[in-house]
Automatic annotation (TrEMBL), chain A:
InterPro entries: Class-I_Fumarase/Tartrate_DH, Fe-S_hydro-lyase_TtdA-typ_cat. It holds the Pfam family Fumerase. It catalyses: (2R,3R)-tartrate = oxaloacetate + H2O. The lineage of its organism: Bacteria, Pseudomonadati, Pseudomonadota, Gammaproteobacteria, Oceanospirillales. GO terms for molecular function: 4 iron, 4 sulfur cluster binding; L(+)-tartrate dehydratase activity; metal ion binding. Keywords: 4Fe-4S, Iron, Iron-sulfur, Lyase, Metal-binding. Its EC number is 4.2.1.32. This is L(+)-tartrate dehydratase subunit alpha. It is an enzyme of class 4 (lyase). It comes from Marinomonas mediterranea (strain ATCC 700492 / JCM 21426 / NBRC 103028 / MMB-1). The keyword Cell inner membrane does not apply. Belongs to the class-I fumarase family.
UniProtKB/TrEMBL annotation, chain B:
Transmembrane segments: none annotated. This is L(+)-tartrate dehydratase subunit beta. Its EC number is 4.2.1.32. InterPro entries: Fe-S_hydro-lyase_TtdB-typ_cat (IPR004647), Fe-S_hydroAse_TtdB_cat_sf (IPR036660). One of its GO terms (molecular function) is L(+)-tartrate dehydratase activity. The keyword Zinc does not apply. Heterotetramer of two alpha and two beta subunits. It catalyses: (2R,3R)-tartrate = oxaloacetate + H2O. Pfam families: Fumerase_C. It comes from Marinomonas mediterranea (strain ATCC 700492 / JCM 21426 / NBRC 103028 / MMB-1). Residues 5-178 form the Fe-S hydro-lyase tartrate dehydratase beta-type catalytic domain. Belongs to the class-I fumarase family.
Amino acid sequence: MGNEQSIEHMSDVMSRFTSYIGKRLPTDVKKKQAELRKKEKNPMAIEIYDTMAENQEAADKLDRPSCQDTGVIQYFLKVGAKFPLIGELEEILRAATLGATERGPLRHNAVETFDEKNTGTNTGSNIPWLDWEILPNEDTAEIEVYMAGGGCTLPGHAKVLMPGQGYEGVADFVFDVITSRGVNACPPLLVGVGVSTSVETAARLSKKAILRPVDTSNPNANAALMEELLEEGLNEVGIGPQGLTGDNTVMGVNIESSARHPSTIGVAVSTGCWAHRRGTIKFNADLSYEIISHEGVTL
Amino acid sequence: MKKILTTPITDEALADLNVGDIVYLTGHLVTCRDVAHRRLIELKQQLPVDVRGGAIFHAGPIVREKDDGSFEMVSIGPTTSMRMEKFERQFIEETGVKMIIGKGGMGEETAAGCLENNAVHAVFPGGCAVVAATKVEAIEAAEWRDLGMPETLWVNRVKEFGPLIISIDTKGNNIFEENKKTFNERKGAILERIHEKVKFIK
């Protein structure tokens, strides 16, 4: 393939993939919801879980976005410095967003800040949002597409605690965010917690945390324990699907962390709604690709 | 048996509804969210659709415009109702709307507005936008299109639109406010237990 053909090919794959993830949930999320439905005993909660399942079937059958809020498109990139199209990725993902907007169709969600004009294309200043991680000696590109609605973005919160508040303060913060603001965010939620040094490092990690599959654990034993305690504890609060009470609150709690300054504990929470629309695709240098998040997909 | 409300909704139809009841709606349902509320209340602009006795939906749908200029409803789920809390009491008062449909709870002011004007707030399960779209028979009008797709007032003719879970009834009961109290009560004891196990700083 020539360079232009390569760009066109990758744009087309990414456009189809972006559109696809708005319609079908990732395999881990689907599995988790079936589990939660099975455990549920509250009749209103069961009715809601069943409507959710009916909705996913209808979205699949009618080939439509499962939630009307298809978000402002975000791409999280782990790109090898030797990936042949590294310099063209921004252009490729912009084209992919435009393509998915027509193909989906996606709701027009990009509003130019301060000008307060909807661009009508889902592209705009710095949108689609690109979060870059460069891997020095690789030639592959792993791209995560994330489509978050306004509802599950609204609870987002970050704060810097004093060391005296300790990890106890981290737990308090997570509970406060979820019980006060998570109710409206379409639970059962996937809760992402970043524990780090400052607001922006914690916030970025909290987002990375909800990109991690639902049933994975942090490799650090203390962090994994905290994930477990927070998950059990939040479930015990019993917020239930749509915040209308039930036997559970969350699909899971994922924590990501970095080393921190001794005087600060930065903590942030990001939430993913039950309709957690994320997808992972990995390209090789020859642009052959593999879809990691969804089993049995043909684009 | 399904309880079905039809627009225009009468006071009698709402009188015996309680929080937690599940109902369906047949008739007209108009999408109405942040900017429409702001325009009516703050900017004193008249709403371009008469919703007296009607129902509004806190929702910004995906709509496909066909070649003949007509519209197809693709996907329409509820948005967070709490965003409209600032305006809703006055909105109910001024427009005479009887049913507000959205997602999540609304606050004390909206509950007061429902009590004063015999109106209700109901929840349609969030994220279930395709189920909702299949209950839309037609889009009959689109007003304030300058606001863009999510904020346009889409006038939908709907059939047995639901499930709608009553979250604020005409007596002013508010299921989410009650739940919030329960959640906060439970939280304290759970956190105390967690604190003991996460004293990693020693």
